Structures are given as C-alpha cells and as structure tokens.
TrEMBL record:
PANTHER family: BLR1237 PROTEIN, TRICARBOXYLATE-BINDING PROTEIN. Keywords: Signal. It comes from the Bacteria. Residues 1-22 form the signal peptide. This is Tripartite tricarboxylate transporter substrate-binding protein. InterPro entries: BUG (IPR005064), Bug_dom1 (IPR042100). It comes from Variovorax ginsengisoli.
Length: 325
C-alpha cells in the first residue's frame, strides 16, 4: 500500500509540475540586475522588462542586487528556485568573472541556463581635453613615448572600461598605469578635469561628454563605425591601426540551472518577441547599442558564445595579472 501511495504522490507531483509549466508565468517575473540603478546594464534591463511584459503577460520587476563587480547578483540568481520567476540580466562580466575572481560561489555557465543574448555595446577610447594628441596616430606615438606615465582610468575591477583597457594595452603591447574608480561617474569626472589621461568607456556613457566637447575621442572599439552624430567622424580602432581590434560589451538573459525546458522555451520565445519591439530597438540604437538578431538568440549558441568569451578573456586577464580575492 505504501508503494501505491508513493506512486500516486509521485504522479500527482509530476502533474502539478506540468500544470505549473503550462500556466507559466502566472505571477510577476523578477529580473536581477547585478549593478546599480541608473547604469547602462540597469537601463538595458528596464527597457527589456517593459518589452517583455506583453509576450509574458505579466509584470516584470527589476531587482538591483549590487556588489563585487556584479558577482553578488549573479550568485543570487544561481541560488534561486529554478522556476523561471527569477532571471538575470548581466554583461560580459559573466565570462570574465571566473578569471578575475579567485573565489566564486557559482560556475559559469554551468550554474545557469542561457536564454539568449540581448545586445552588443561598443566602447570608445576617449582622452582628457588637454591631451596633445589630436588623432589616434598621434596618440599612439604619445603613449609609446610616455609608457607607464600614461594614466588609464577605469570604473573598477571587471567593469567594461577595465576590460577594454586591458585589451587596449595588450594590442599596443605596452603597459600603462591603471587608475581604478568606484564607478563610471567619478572616473569620467577626473578625466574631464584632466586628473587622468585616457579611458575606454561604453558609448552610452561617453557620447554626452563627446557632444559637450568635454573629452577627446580617438576611436570606436567595434569593427563598425557608430551612426551617431557625435561619432560621425570617429574611426574604429581597427581602421586607425589596431587591426581587428574588437571589444564590445554584450548583455544576456539567464535563468537558474534546472529551470524546466518548457519554461525556458517560453522565456526564449518572449525574449525573441521583445527584441523585435520597435520601441525597444529605437531606445537601444539611440544609446549606440545593437540588438542581437543572429544565432546567439538561441540558448545553445548563447552558451557556446559565453564559453568562447570566457576563454578569450581568461588569457588577457592572466597576462595582465589582475585578480580579486
């Protein structure tokens, strides 16, 4: 009799789980953003949340869980119930954290279900207003002449500006003096004030300063120029002499490992619909971002892309010798 009841209970639980998947979502979905409100990733996540409301048929809530270069928020999602109601929007840090942090409470991508990439965000190389160099060729000569005297600002360990700066130094085969800050705002303030020399920062943050002629722009980090008025004359760094230089900050959507396949399929379908939303596309393009439309919208391709990026950045970080405890 006990065996019979266990069988019946098991069938009931399986039926309940199937019903839950069929009804998903029947309550609000939360997207964890592992960075502060008002920043680029937060803005992207909020725009995505708005575009997801219609295909999901539910409210999508943003939860900013910040700290340790985005790893606290990522860990929160890795530990969350695998039911599709707690998701993560994070950037390239998903691929770089394993190399940057000696102790992570989660594995990438093993502890997550990849749902698809959202966008790609190129950065721009900018300099203080008083810098003598007026173009990239002159800047390259100036860097060669000054070496470690050159101060290269970044917004903190694992930030887009930090990673781009590492790749820039690697491409030039030189070493500059890194100046880390606790965020983009103070780094940009000191660059405008001339306390530091250079910074490699996401276009979304740099364009207002370029438009106001508060900083000099030397190049774009993607392989394509950006169709923004402030950058109409700015070449790519590849065009300017760093052949094939390509550093873009990408954002992806993730769920906890073990989320049911039926739920993952619904979330991926909703993401694909959201990324076709004209209003979302308009907002992304206004920020200099490109919405992903290629195979990386497929969960398996997204996972493969993260693994490739993880390998790529591990070498750059190892060569630079920059880690966090």
């Amino acid at each position: 009799m006990n065996k019979l009841w266990r069988h019946v209970a098991g069938v009931a639980l399986a039926g309940s789980a199937t019903l839950a998947c069929a009804n998903f979502p029947d309550k609000p979905v939360t997207i964890v953003v592992p960075f502060a409100a008002g920043g680029p990733t937060d803005k992207i996540a909020r725009d995505l949340a708005e575009a997801l409301r219609k295909p999901l048929g539910q409210t999508v809530i943003i939860d900013n869980t910040i700290g340790a270069g985005g790893t606290i928020g990522a860990a929160k999602v890795a530990r969350a119930a695998p039911d599709g109601y707690t998701l993560l929007v994070s950037h390239i840090g998903m691929a770089t954290a394993p190399a940057l942090y000696r102790k992570l409470s989660y594995k990438v991508p093993e502890d997550f279900e990849t749902l698809g990439l959202i966008n790609e965000a190129p950065s721009v190389l900018i300099g203080k207003p008083g810098l003598a160099a007026n173009n990239f060729a002159e800047l390259r000569q100036w860097i060669a002449a000054n070496g470690t005297k050159v101060n290269l600002a970044n917004a903190g360990l694992g930030s887009a500006s930090h990673l781009c700066g590492l790749m820039f130094q690697s491409a030039l085969k030189t070493t500059m003096t890194p100046v880390p800050y606790k965020g983009t705002a103070p780094a940009m303030t000191d660059l405008i004030g001339g306390q530091v020399d250079l910074m490699c920062e996401q276009a979304v943050n740099a364009v207002p300063q370029i438009e106001g002629k508060k900083v000099k722009v030397y190049g774009i980090t993607s392989l394509q120029r950006l169709p923004l008025p402030a950058l109409k004359d700015a070449p790519t760094l590849s065009e300017a002499g760093l052949k094939d230089f390509n550093v873009q900050v990408w954002h992806g959507l993730y769920a906890p490992k073990g989320t049911p396949p039926a739920v993952l399929a619904k979330l991926n379908a909703a993401l694909r619909t959201a990324l076709k939303d004209p209003e979302l596309i308009k907002r992304e393009e206004a920020l200099g971002l490109t919405v992903v439309t290629d195979e990386r919208l497929d969960p398996a391709s997204h996972r493969k892309f993260v693994e490739t990026e993880k390998t790529r950045w591990a070498k750059v970080i190892k060569d630079a010798g920059e880690y966090a405890d």
